[in-house]
């Protein structure tokens, strides 16, 4: 499988590689594997896609290897459970390894800058902390099976429109606090074997050629020691990319780029050491993969069955968004009408490279509910199989079936064509045929439950408040029907919580005005105010906030305690189940940081824990909040900093549902930029040591008091305070001189 006999003991690469051997390791052998150098003891590495299940192409590309299809990352993110994500990842890795793969090209972990992102279903969240924690779970799950993980797409690959070229024009602060943040977490903690450089540019430079990103930040700041691989076809200039730190170009270029590399060394424009350094990284990966290969499959006897895990994961990904009059769980004897063509053939994944050929069919929601529910279950399609086409006869039939039932469950969702790699969603709306069906059923039925199947938020304004319950399944994989049925009948508690805001209207979303950009540029004008950070900053209403989700059980949060720890703060909260039902709960911790010259999100997620609490039971939850979670990136000083002052830690059920609050007094860095002649007068005056020293110096230098008067008159300071101070020093009419400023500046360090 690796270009070496499978029984071969993993070898150390032998001997110094020649330049052409080294160059040959730097691009693929074909679509999915690296080149082997058997005589040097370097095997080939086989890579495969697989974020919600193994997505390996058949050798003739006529389809994919059948595999267990798990919920997509967007759905699984709603579990807020890195351990469950890790179990799913482990199961995917075992199937990948059984199919001969060494590396899984997952997890996808870009942030959801806009709900329109075409690949959002492959990503976790609009929040970097949640994304980072879940990606750590995924990478640990995969690598625990001896298969390498490849985190992608590094970085700011947040749209499909013009994805191969577009420049994400983004501030350093937003990059650091959001887009890089999740990668930083996973690279430093879980140590993935590979990082995939994305197609797009960042601030004008292709990521694949960006030395600051690929070497400065990834390797030098975060200590990444694995292989940087290009997204498939993302290399624009092979030599520039190699210099920047892109080790492996995929897929094969039939030797063309290897020849460019050798020619550049021969011409003296590329250092041979750069070639050997990247070749060594690829060789190390190959040897590591071969060594791990001998241990693969060891856990498969103790692991749960993948098919069962797919059902549990689907169940746990379900979010109950609304539940009025206790319509759910279904009363055991209720007469139920299940309506909507998607109830007979549910969607369960998105399109593109991540697509899985499911081993087991997803089955029908109608059958799954029928098998679990004691009362009668009737079915009517309501709209055409494509999910799009209005059919008056089907509509009429559905309304009469709904009217005869106690509860109508209408299954709707975004059509298959709406969510795929390669293009962004056009809008958030469901097809009109489906909205019309929901409205008609809600008007006729005694109780209406809407089940939404989608890889992201949909617009619910047309019927949100006129139906009794709303359930979001996400794209839940092959377990969608059984997982949903156990939630509807109440065999399981809906523990899912939204990992992204459901806005009322697309126009409310923070990136609305600039997504997806034009002319090759996407201006990230919302800065750090992505998702709930932006919605909460403007305070506009949302349909369902980030973190929202209801349980059948009822829990209370008590006794929030915060104490300093070695790495930050330890937070404890007691969760009491005050109901007679088992409940799943996600304790979410947010920080309310003091506003500063730099604006902050009103609340930012700093930790969370998903817990199951039995009826009447009490659990004390402990969550570690690292210092970094309270820090911000300072644009002027170009570093992370912790602001001093009162910060409030909030235990909440969503970004908008604070339950308990605890104020802590943070002693921060009190970051001060060194004063220069370019600093403003106000910056000089406000400095605790320099300000008084400046006044004292001018008072001595200008006994007339004119200069002192100017610098202490509030109105004058209001007018001229923003001037870089050296511009005042050219005026011979006052005592400010460059010499005097030089002397006074010395007191900064006193
Ligand atoms: C996608 C990657 C994928 C790769 C290999 C690219 O088009 O962007 O996510 O891993 O193809 O299939």
Automatic annotation (TrEMBL):
The biological processes this protein is annotated with in GO are: carbohydrate metabolic process
Sorted alphabetically, which keywords does the UniProt record give? Carbohydrate metabolism, Glycosidase, Hydrolase
Listed GO MF terms? beta-glucosidase activity
- SUPFAM superfamilies associated with the record: (Trans)glycosidases (SSF51445), Beta-D-glucan exohydrolase, C-terminal domain (SSF52279)
Stated name of the protein: Beta-glucosidase
Similarity field? Belongs to the glycosyl hydrolase 3 family.
Q: Which organism is it from?
A: Agromyces terreus
* Record's keyword annotation contains Hydrolase: yes
Q: Give residue ranges for domain Fibronectin type III-like.
A: 585-655
Protein EC: 3.2.1.21
UniProt-listed PANTHER family: BETA-GLUCOSIDASE (PTHR42715)
Instruction: Kindly indicate whether the keyword Hydrolase belongs to this entry.
Output: yes
């Amino acid at each position: 499988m690796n270009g070496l006999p499978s029984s071969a003991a993993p070898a150390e690469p032998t001997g110094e590689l020649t330049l052409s051997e080294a160059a040959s390791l730097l691009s693929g052998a074909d679509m999915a594997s690296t080149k082997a150098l058997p005589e040097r003891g370097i095997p080939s590495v086989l890579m495969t896609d697989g974020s919600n299940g193994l997505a390996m192409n058949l050798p003739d590309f006529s389809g994919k290897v059948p595999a267990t299809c798990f919920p997509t990352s967007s759905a699984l993110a709603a579990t807020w459970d890195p351990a469950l994500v890790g179990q799913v990842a482990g199961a995917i890795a075992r199937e990948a390894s059984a199919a001969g793969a060494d590396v899984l090209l997952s997890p996808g972990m870009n942030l959801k800058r806009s709900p329109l992102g075409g690949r959002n279903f492959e990503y976790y969240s609009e929040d970097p902390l949640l994304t980072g924690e879940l990606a750590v779970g995924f990478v640990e799950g995969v690598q625990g099976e001896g298969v390498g993980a490849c985190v992608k797409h590094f970085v700011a690959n947040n749209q499909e429109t013009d994805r191969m070229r577009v420049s994400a024009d983004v501030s350093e602060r937003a990059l650091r606090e959001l887009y890089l943040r999740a990668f930083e977490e996973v690279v430093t903690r879980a140590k993935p074997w590979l990082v995939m450089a994305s197609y797009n540019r960042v601030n004008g430079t292709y990521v694949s050629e960006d030395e600051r990103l690929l070497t400065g930040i990834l390797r030098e700041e975060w200590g990444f020691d694995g292989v940087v691989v290009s997204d498939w076809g993302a290399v624009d200039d092979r030599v520039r990319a190699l210099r920047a730190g892109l080790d492996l170009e995929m897929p094969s270029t039939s030797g063309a780029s290897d020849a460019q590399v050798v020619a550049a060394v021969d011409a003296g424009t590329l250092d041979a050491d750069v070639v050997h350094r990247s070749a060594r990284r690829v060789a190390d990966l190959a040897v590591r993969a071969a060594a791990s290969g001998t241990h693969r499959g060891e856990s498969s006897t103790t692991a749960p069955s993948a098919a069962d895990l797919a059902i549990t994961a689907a169940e746990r990904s379900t979010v109950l968004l609304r539940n009025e009059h206790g319509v759910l769980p279904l009363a055991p004897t209720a007469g139920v009408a299940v309506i909507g063509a998607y109830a007979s053939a549910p969607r369960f994944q998105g399109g593109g490279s991540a697509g899985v050929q499911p081993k087991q069919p997803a089955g029908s929601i109608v059958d799954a509910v029928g098998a679990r529910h004691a009362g009668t279950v009737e079915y009517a399609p309501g709209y055409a199989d494509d999910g799009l086409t209005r059919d008056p006869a089907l509509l009429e039939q559905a309304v009469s079936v709904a009217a005869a039932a106690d509860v109508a469950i209408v299954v709707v969702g975004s059509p298959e064509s709406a969510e795929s790699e390669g293009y962004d969603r056009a809008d958030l709306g469901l097809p009109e045929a489906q909205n019309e069906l929901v409205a008609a059923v809600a008007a006729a039925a005694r109780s209406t439950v809407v089940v939404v199947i989608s890889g992201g938020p949909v617009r619910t304004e047309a019927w949100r408040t006129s139906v009794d319950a709303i359930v979001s399944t996400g794209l839940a994989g092959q377990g969608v029907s059984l997982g949903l049925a156990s939630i509807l009948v109440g065999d399981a508690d809906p523990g899912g919580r939204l990992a992204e805001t459901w806005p009322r209207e697309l126009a409310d979303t923070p990136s609305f005005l600039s997504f997806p950009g034009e002319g090759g540029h996407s201006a990230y004008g919302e800065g750090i105010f992505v998702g709930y950070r932006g919605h909460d900053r403007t305070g506009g209403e949302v349909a369902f906030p980030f973190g929202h989700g209801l349980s059948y059980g009822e829990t209370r949060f008590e006794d929030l305690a915060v104490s300093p720890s070695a790495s930050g703060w330890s937070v404890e909260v007691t969760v009491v189940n005050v109901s007679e039902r088992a409940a799943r709960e996600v304790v979410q911790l947010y920080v309310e940081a003091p506003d500063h010259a730099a604006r902050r999100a009103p609340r930012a997620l700093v930790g969370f824990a998903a817990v199951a609490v039995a009826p009447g039971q009490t659990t004390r939850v402990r969550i570690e909040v690292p210092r970094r979670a309270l820090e911000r990136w300072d644009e002027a000083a170009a570093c992370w900093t912790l602001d001093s002052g009162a910060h409030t830690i909030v235990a909440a059920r969503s970004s908008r549902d604070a339950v308990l609050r605890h104020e802590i007094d943070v002693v921060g860095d009190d970051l001060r930029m060194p004063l220069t002649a370019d600093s403003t007068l106000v910056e000089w005056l406000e400095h605790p040591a320099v300000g008084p020293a400046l006044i004292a110096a001018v008072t001595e230098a200008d006994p007339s008091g004119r200069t002192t008067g100017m610098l202490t008159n509030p109105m004058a300071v209001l007018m001229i305070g923003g001037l870089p101070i050296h511009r005042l020093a050219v005026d011979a009419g006052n005592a400010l001189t460059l010499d005097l400023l030089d002397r006074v500046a010395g007191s900064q360090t006193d």
